[in-house]
Amino acid sequence: MKLSLYTGFVMLAGKSTAYFITHSSAIFSDAIESVIHLAAVAFAAFALWLSRRPANERFHYGYERISFFSAGFEGALIAAAAVAIIVTAIYEWMQGLRLQSLGLGTLITLSLGLLNGGLGFYLIHAGRRNHSLILEANGRHVLTDCWTSLGVIVGLCLVLLTGWKPFDPICAILMALNILWSGAQLIWKSARGLLDYADPAAEALLREILDGLTASQNIAYHGLRLRETGGRFLAEVHLLFPYESSLGEAHEKATTIETAIEQSFGQPVEVMTHLEACEDHAERHPREHPR
User: Fold this and answer.
1) At what angle do helices 200-216 and 247-264 cross, to 10 degrees?
2) Which of 13, 50, 74, 118 is most enclosed, with most CB atoms within 10 A?
3) In angstroms, rounded to a whole number, what is the distance separating the alpha carbons of residues 16 and 165?
């Protein structure tokens, strides 16, 4: 996150310089995106720090769900930047385009875009390796900034080749629409997390593991629920034992299953089991066994 923040300052300084040299709407859109990026990185850094704090008597599950707020906040900022870019590009187009020194501006933008691209891929990789939605969202934002810069370069090259200046604001508007789509995806991912969306792939893997473990212990299960906190998964499941099973025996098997899931799931997961007797299960859960 520190690397992302320091790079963000470099990007903002470089793109602002390129804009004042060229007066390009496309480069201005790129610079505005960098301002938004700095604000998003600052919040993401705070969210990452908070998410690592342990659970306490006030927050029993810790602070990991701040990850979804961070992703939503970053997505909202990206969307706001896109709107600002579109409005500015149309305004400057109507006022008359004043473009100059496009060659130098294109070279500066290209250099910054390549730097952002490398940083974006690194952050996404680090986020997936550490199961951090905050890092991954920040990486996607940085990568979006890279694609924006490359789009700006295309627009500037078209102006240089054809001499038709409207290519510049048109390119800025197209890049803004791409940024808006990226922001909407982050907002949707944030909303899914806050609403405890169950990832079908993760649930299928968990059921596959549970099927094998319960079969080996000669028991059954039901009531599986799964949710993501931003840094790990929380799973709940009811295990069905024969009525004559002792509490100690049932608890030992449940603990074995919990440990096996946590070791084989492939991602951080905390499993909570509830022990039930299979003989009177239908009577105690009539909704699951309608007559």
Assistant:
1) 140
2) 74
3) 20
Burial state string for 204-240 with b = 16 or more CB within 10 A and e = fewer than 16: ebbeebbeebbeebebbbeeeebbbbbbbbbbebbbb
Domain ranges of the chain: 2-194, 200-288
Q: 45 in the Ramachandran plot: left (φ > 0), alpha (ψ -120 to 50) or beta?
A: alpha
What six digits make up the tokens of 158?
């078209």
* 2-194 placed in CATH 3.30.1360.70: no
Amino acid at 270: E
Burial zone of 80 (CB within 10 Å; 0-12 exposed, 13-18 middle, 19+ buried): middle
- Percent of the chain whose predicted confidence (pLDDT) is above 90: 8
Pick the more confident residue, 99 or 158.
158
How many residues make up the chain in this entry? Answer: 291
Has domain 200-288 been given CATH number 3.30.70.1350?
yes
- Token pair 């295309």 is at which residue? 154
This prediction has a pTM of: 0.67
Tell me how far CA of residue 88 lies from CA of 32, 95, 181, in angstroms.
10, 10, 19
The CA distance from 228 to 265, in Å, is 13
pLDDT at 210: 92
Query: Do 2-194 and 200-288 fold alike per CATH?
Result: no
Helices (H), the chain: 2-22, 25-51, 66-95, 102-129, 133-162, 167-194, 200-216, 247-264, 281-284
CB 174 within 8 A of CB 221: no
d(CA 165, CA 136): 37
Pair 24, 15: CB distance under 8 Å: no
The mean per-residue pLDDT over the stretch 248-267 comes to: 89
